[in-house]
Write a structure and sequence with these properties.
Layout (H helix, E strand, L loop, with lengths): L7 E5 L3 H10 L4 E6 L1 H10 L1 E5 L3 E3 L2 E4 L12 E3 L6 H7 L8 E3 L6 H9 L4 E14 L2 E13 L3 H16 L4 E3 L3 H22 L5 H4 L1 H20 L11 H12 L6 H8 L9 H11 L4 H20 L3
Helix pairs in contact: 3-4, 6-8, 6-9, 6-10, 6-12, 8-11, 11-12
Length: 316
Amino acid sequence: MADGSRPPLWIAGAGAVGLYLAARLDAVADVTLVARGDRAQKLREHGITVSGRETAHARVRIAALEERPRVPEDVTVLLCTKAPQLLELVRSLDRSPDSALGLCQNGLGVAALAATETGDAPLVRVACWFGAAQLGPTEVNLAGMFQLELAADEPAAQRATNELDALLRAAGLPVSRAPSIAACEWRKSLWNLAVSGPCALLDRRNGAVLDDPDLQSLARALIAEAVAVAAADGVILEPDRAGTAAETVFASTEKTRSNYNAMVHDLRRGAPTEMPWLNAEVARRAAQYGLAAPHNATIAQLIRAAERARAIERGA
């Protein structure tokens, strides 16, 4: 509900991440959630329900994307759609060129992708290290919370980053800061590189990477390749000792072991996956630097093949 004592915040995208953040931040911000079609009407009628590790019910202002809602000036917008839909979402919002945009997508190169459409808008990278699954148009289940990590490269984006940091902390969420957008993207992508593709191909829960020796070995190989490519990118992911990156990934996985990750759901319903910004991007950058990333390249090929198979099954 509108409250002049709370700062305004817009969240565009009513998937699992958008619903959870809208419900959680409603306590400290005047939230407007942008949703599509029938989902917008259902959210107006029923509000947002959070279940699992947290339980909550929240009613926030809902704006229908089809009505091209006008974002007020100097208001940060968290973009919570997935990477394949990011540019379409940016084009659909009627916003001030100066409105800061928080990019909550998984993947490498997401900020560079957004910059092709956002002009001079301040960009804040938001890495969401938590497990959330959408149970219906208005309900999200939280399996576990690890942290949110923020990063910005341009001075113009630092103010928005600081304000968002304060807002997230006021809501009781664990927040960290990365030194750069590149570091933020690499740090969060490690989890998706190691877990999303293998589990999606086998239609398994996240915990399979912890419990199956072969999957855990594969995850370690995927991480090792990514660490080498990140270093070539100027991002050091293991500054202290060998194994740090894998241990961080596995610790995060333990908190969401019962979840099916987003790529599993994408393959099940025949939707485009985030693979072009994950293992496929690691393989592309590896080739660019003269490095080898055969495990990442293979996972990318297998996911592409699985996407084509699902399309054939659906008669596309």
